């Protein structure tokens, strides 16, 4: 089964919602808080569910929240999920040159 098909199945949608509820829709990694323009502290809700045991490597755990007494599925904000997968863009790492057009 391809990776994208996994996340379109009804079974995944149900377990995903269960995990988000279990974590109160909060990122378990950072509890992603920020301040809005008024200076009020806000919490960005977790929108993704991450496999600790990757679904491609451990298909038997694909829909299991708990594996051997430890969490397999956890709620994350988008930033933490991208960072865990090494996809976070860091402008300083992509520096090309000092050329400027003043």
Layout of strands and helices, then pairs:
Elements: H1 3-6, H2 10-22, E1 33-35, E2 41-43, E3 48-51, E4 66-67, E5 70-71, E6 73-76, H3 78-84
Antiparallel strand pairs: 1-2, 3-6, 4-5
- Beta-strand segment tally: 6
Strand order of the largest sheet: 1-2
Termini Cα gap:
53 Å
* Rg estimate, integer Å: 18 Å
Low-confidence stretches: 92-96
Number of helical stretches of at least 4 residues: 3
Task: State the domain count.
Answer: 1
**Could you state the order of secondary-structure elements as H and E?**
HHEEEEEEH
Structural class: alpha+beta
Largest sheet: 2 strands, antiparallel
Describe this protein with a few key phrases.
single chain, 102 residues, alpha+beta, 6 strands, elongated
Q: How does this model look, in words?
A:
The structure is a single chain. The chain is 24% helix and 18% strand. It is an alpha+beta fold and 102 residues long. The strands form three sheets. The chain has a two-stranded antiparallel ribbon with strand order 1-2. The protein has helices at 3-6, 10-22, 78-84; strands spanning 33-35, 41-43, 48-51, 66-67, 70-71, 73-76. Strand 1 (33-35) and strand 2 form a beta hairpin. The protein contains three helices and six strands. The protein has one domain (3-87).
């Amino acid at each position: 089964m391809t990776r994208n098909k996994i996340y379109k199945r009804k079974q995944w949608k149900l377990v995903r919602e269960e995990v988000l509820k279990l974590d109160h829709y909060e990122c378990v990694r950072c509890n992603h808080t920020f301040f809005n323009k008024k200076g009020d502290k806000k919490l960005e809700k977790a929108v993704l569910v991450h496999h600790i045991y990757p679904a491609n490597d451990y298909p038997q755990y694909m829909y299991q929240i708990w594996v051997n007494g430890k969490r397999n599925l956890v709620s994350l904000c988008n930033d933490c999920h991208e960072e865990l997968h090494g996809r976070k863009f860091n402008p300083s790492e992509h520096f090309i040159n000092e050329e400027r057009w003043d």
